[in-house]
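Okay, can you check this protein?
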Amino acid sequence: MINIRNATLDDARELLDIYAPYIEKTAITFEYDVPTLDEFRERISQISNSYPYLVASDNGRIIGYAYASEFKARAAYQWSVETSIYLDMEERHHGVGKTLYTELEKQLKSKGILNMNACITYMDEADEYLPLDSIHFHETMGFARCAHFHQIGYKFNRWYDMIWMEKLIGNHCNKGDKR
């Protein structure tokens, strides 16, 4: 049974262990170096102060995490977030991502967020560093492609594109000045 809960700083080691292979073995993230445990704890702390940072566990073992972060620092963007999700490499394609993103969306709606945005590495064809799973996952979660940047990230001695996908999750009526 998958349990979803808020991340704590005590989860940092397990979350970093999930994230590190994405840095070292994939182009899914454009980060080159694995952050230190202290740096990763600080990331969790900073994000958790304002946005949901969720972990999925199975029998007490963390198998994935998802979070939302600030889309842009300007006040006019306060109703939009960037979302991220990372699963244990052995836990992909088992429904954990859907469970995490469903709860993330629910929590974001309750905070008055209207737009979920995802930045995804892209190539026309998958290669050994980039499966195209993320695009398909986001499409099944109701996201649509909205921007395509060509040859924007360089990793593993090759150039990768980036696409942005969005999902509108609320009513875009006149919101006033603050959420």
Q: What stands out?
A: The domain at 2-168 is CATH 3.40.630.30 (Aminopeptidase). The mean pLDDT is 94. The longest helix spans residues 96-110. The helical segments are 12-25, 37-48, 96-110, 133-140.
